[in-house]
Design goal:
single chain, 149 residues, alpha+beta, Thiol Ester Dehydrase, Chain A, six-stranded antiparallel beta sheet, globular, HotDog_dom_sf, PAAI_dom, fatty acyl-CoA hydrolase activity, hydrolase
Length: 149
């Protein structure tokens, strides 16, 4: 059985993600590097409008990056229902400056009938971890096909 959501995102590998259903994700303008069922990698370049007054990556933007990447990966994970975040736990471990490129990766840890558990990490080119998170996505009553997906 083909997964049209996964096939669409695979066609976007190497491209800027600025035409997705997520307006906030489009603002981030990440570049999709890899996607499979249960795994994703997106690259982001830190811009001034992503930073706090100290000119380092704002924690809310870092959280948005991980939440959006988890959401994309969960969208292609194979559920016929829309799933939504019910929590996001974030640890901020180091800073990132304007102009730095970051990789946000997420992997599916556990998939259940109603709940998917994800972990995500933001890393610098050097391998240093900027932040990490975990999130649970819960199945809604809305079918993806009824939403036009």
């Amino acid at each position: 059985m083909t997964n049209p959501q996964l096939e669409f995102f695979k066609s976007q590998i190497g491209k800027t993600l600025d035409k997705t259903p997520s307006a906030a994700g489009n603002w981030l303008a990440g570049k999709l590097l890899a996607i499979e069922a249960g795994y994703i990698e997106v690259q982001y370049t830190i811009r001034p409008d992503m930073c706090n007054p100290a000119k380092i990556l704002h924690g809310g933007v870092a959280s948005l990056m991980m939440d959006d990447v988890i959401g994309m990966a969960n969208f292609v994970a194979g559920s016929e229902y829309l799933m939504t975040s019910i929590n996001l736990s974030v640890d901020f471990l180091s800073s990132a400056k304007i102009g730095e490129e970051l990789i946000v990766s997420a992997k599916l840890i556990r998939s259940g009938s109603n709940l998917n558990h994800w972990e995500a990490v933001i890393t610098k080119d050097s391998g240093k971890i900027v932040a990490k998170s975990s999130s649970n996505m819960i199945k809604t009553h809305l079918k993806l096909k009824d939403l036009g997906f």
